[in-house]
Amino acid sequence: MKAPVSIRNTAYNENIQVNANGELKHFLSIEGLSCDHLTKILDTAENFTGVTDRSVKKVPLLRGKTIINLFFEASTRTRTTFELAGRRLSADVLNLDIANSATKKGETLLDTLRNLEAMQSDLFVVRHDGSGSAHFIAQNVRPGIGVINAGDGKHSHPTQAMLDMFTIRRCKKSFHSLCVAIIGDIEHSRVARSQIHALNILGAGEVRVIGPKTLLPTSVEALGVHVYHDLKEGLKGVDVVIVLRLQKERMQGAFLPSEREYFQLYGLTEDKLKHANSDVIVMHPGPINRGVELDSAVADGANSVILQQVSYGIAVRMAVMSLILQPGT
Ligand code: CP
């Protein structure tokens, strides 16, 4: 296959994620992976929670490996947990400071890559506002170098989806009888797309999306979800609620009359949450906007597992890195 020369003409070739033995070479999207692949990531992460819980949070598994974080877009949780994950596996982890890098002097993404390859890198972790950017890099790196997608445009955020699946499995034990509702801005959400694929691959009982028509992609049902526009209706019988931020940085035009009206209709409050099952868990990938998509009482309430998601992100990212760099893990 000829490598694409720009992100814009990159095809989402999911097959390049695994080698002939079915082992992970890259982690670019949930699509194209099997239930066995996802379960292996969850089971491996389960083993790593033992490391993250002890006083010396380090194992020598990736000693001598070099991991480079390439974040072309802002991040708090993903970048820091990838860095911690790499360090806890004893890899050398570098964060390219994009704002002060030679990309500001006109160096192309491909030339930046070639230079980082020349530093004997083993793995690139990439966040970029261009959908397809991680695929583009994976299709252009030297054989043997892994690429992990840390969020590309509104396409995919697979490690976020896996840490969400890990949180759900930890709290609810099994996916099969679960009803999961994702509320809010599905249209601009790479997280929602990855979560929907992961939940369906792992056999969740029912996946719902709840939001105004303007924030749901056309033909969203084709992803394997039931659509609700009324929040209280959509919450009935739900075991897991995932709340999404309004991703204004990806909105071109007016999608909502006002944030106040959005909060009235779709903002999750304690009262509205009573329509879900009493043992419902409330999740959010972060960053949260209090008073916009959820009330503080819900964000900090007894049903919230939002900060557990962040903690589990370290073990899940350790699992993905080690499965790519040490396939026998
Ligand atoms: N969930 C998430 O991707 O958060 P950051 O943008 O802070 O990495």
**Shape-level CATH architecture of the largest domain:** 3-Layer(aba) Sandwich
CATH superfamily caption of the largest domain:
Aspartate/ornithine carbamoyltransferase
Shape: globular
- Strands, count: 9
Tell me what you see in this structure.
It is a single chain. The chain has helices spanning 35-53, 77-88, 109-117, 133-140, 158-172, 190-201, 231-235, 259-266, 270-273, 296-299, 306-325, and strands spanning 66-71, 92-96, 123-128, 146-152, 179-183, 206-210, 226-228, 240-243, 281-283. It is an alpha/beta fold and 329 residues long. Strands 7-6-5-8-9 form a 5-stranded parallel beta sheet. Helix 4 links the parallel strand 3 and strand 4. The chain is globular. The model has no long low-confidence stretch (mean pLDDT 94). Phosphoric acid mono(formamide)ester is lined by residues 75-78, 151, 160, 285-287.
Question: What would a concise description of this structure say?
Answer:
With 329 residues, the chain is α/β, with parallel strands linked by helices.
